[in-house]
Amino acid sequence: xxxxxxxxxxVHPDFAIMGQAGEILRRGGLVAFPTETVYxxxxxxxxxxxxxxxxxxxxxxxxxxxxxxxxxxxALEGIVKEIPAKALALAEAFWPGPLTMIFEKNGRVPLAxxxxxxxxxxxxxxxxxxxxxxxxSTGYIAAPSANVSGRPSPTKAVHVIEDxxxxxxxxxxxxAVGIGLxxxxxxxxxxxxxxxxxxxxxxxMMERVIGPVCMDRGLMAxxxxxxxxxxxxxxRHYAPKAELTIVEGEENRVVETVNGWIRExxxxxxxxxxxxxxxxxxxxxxxxxxxxxxxxxxxSIARHLFDVxxxxxxxxxxxxxxxxxxxxxxxxxxxxxLLKAAGHRVxxx
Length: 349
Ligand code: TXA
Ligand code: MG
Hints:
By secondary structure, this protein is of the alpha/beta class. It has helices spanning about 15-25, 50-60, 75, 85-95, 130-135, 155-165, 205-210, 250-265, 300-310, 330-340, and strands spanning about 5, 30-35, 40-45, 65-70, 100-105, 120-125, 140, 170-175, 185, 195, 215, 245-250, 270-275, 290, 320-325, 345-349. The protein binds threonylcarbamoyladenylate and magnesium ion.
């Protein structure tokens, strides 16, 4: 299939292009589009055949449910059985934005979209082009991240093109996204609201609005016997081709130890890379050192993570050492992705 690739202004997307994209979605086709978190691979959420196409294009296991994207609050009422008061309060506080909530679904949402579950994940994105696209569609766009299953989520249109060119009808290029990590997911189908995936909206931010929120025990666990509740969180994800190791400890020690390992590897003819910060990048003696931005700016670290992981795949390195990023607000979200990318390989020095 020939993929149409169109550049759009992320704030004022071209009327005609958005009309064409909406038409493709209504006909059951697929359109990749920018959101404020990561690029999404959209299909009509109410059309089971469109959902099946999404799974096929991504190579995604069909038990891994999709998030349904809406543009207004009324649309939520159209697909769920009930809306708990706390969910309504979070919607009031954080929608449109990088927050996904899980509800019991009604009969309008096909099981093909929810991976066979009777619950549905719903998000109202804040990105202007994403909202416009939803309005031009049936009002419900199922959209996982627009990457091939297992690869880092796309934060730029080139990442989408790398993974999905020739597999989807259209890719809308709205430039680099603002946040760079996928939305926070909260499940409202149990006793206490539970975070199934950490993101930009932290537990603390939600607790200030609705009181106690718990965290899925399966999330950070290295022990694979504790299964994460979101089906997608159990899969191997984000891993670069090179072996990635996270190195934790006091800054000087990390730098010294990593430089020692690099010397040893290079003596064996193996090239190494380092994931560092602006403050430390100059201290490493590796062939490739990539900075995630300043350690003082956690939003920059979040925004650059997936791009850095993808860039390493174009380089001939055998191993990558990464600093850890336990930053105040988004640390949990950043470390959740980095730990997965590293297959939980962490060395304390
Ligand atoms: O920021 C985002 O959320 C992006 C953009 C495009 O909106 N989307 C995204 O979708 O990250 P995806 O499919 O890559 O990740 C969705 C995650 C998966 O881990 C999936 O298992 C989980 O949400 N999920 C979806 N529906 C669920 C449900 N009903 N119950 C439990 N987990 C669910
Ligand atoms: Mg994904």
